[in-house]
Write a structure and sequence with these properties.
Helices cover 5% and strands 57% of the residues. By secondary structure, the protein is mostly beta strands.
Length: 110
């Protein structure tokens, strides 16, 4: 039975990231997100260990999907921008998936 460990990381910018060790560590090299809190455009820079596409999804504080989930072209470096300007205040969940691995980022919208 494989052992799974959940990591919780708080970056210097205040982003809270949650991820499962194992598959995630094997795929993601680095994930930076900014600004957090945000009142306009939220950015995520993803660096992967191999060239694959990533899927992006955002869930609102009341559980609604805020964007149509989309998939980027296969690459090692991804820059993602999410315009949150017109969204209500609250905590949003941004999920970045790459293969079987994922990163979850809690974003505070002012």
């Amino acid at each position: 039975i494989a052992e799974t460990t959940k990591k919780l990381e708080i970056s210097p910018t205040g982003s809270v990231r949650s991820r499962l060790a194992g598959a995630t560590d094997a795929v993601f090299q680095n994930v930076d997100s900014y600004p957090n809190p945000v009142d306009g455009v939220f950015s995520v820079d993803v660096e992967l260990k191999e060239s694959i596409s990533v899927k992006v999804n955002v869930i609102s504080p009341n559980g609604m999907r805020m964007i149509t989930p989309y998939e980027t072209q296969a690459d090692v470096i991804h820059h993602i921008e999410i315009d949150m300007t017109t969204w209500s205040q609250g905590v949003y969940i941004v999920t970045i998936e790459a293969g079987d691995a994922f990163e979850t980022i809690k974003v505070i919208k002012l």
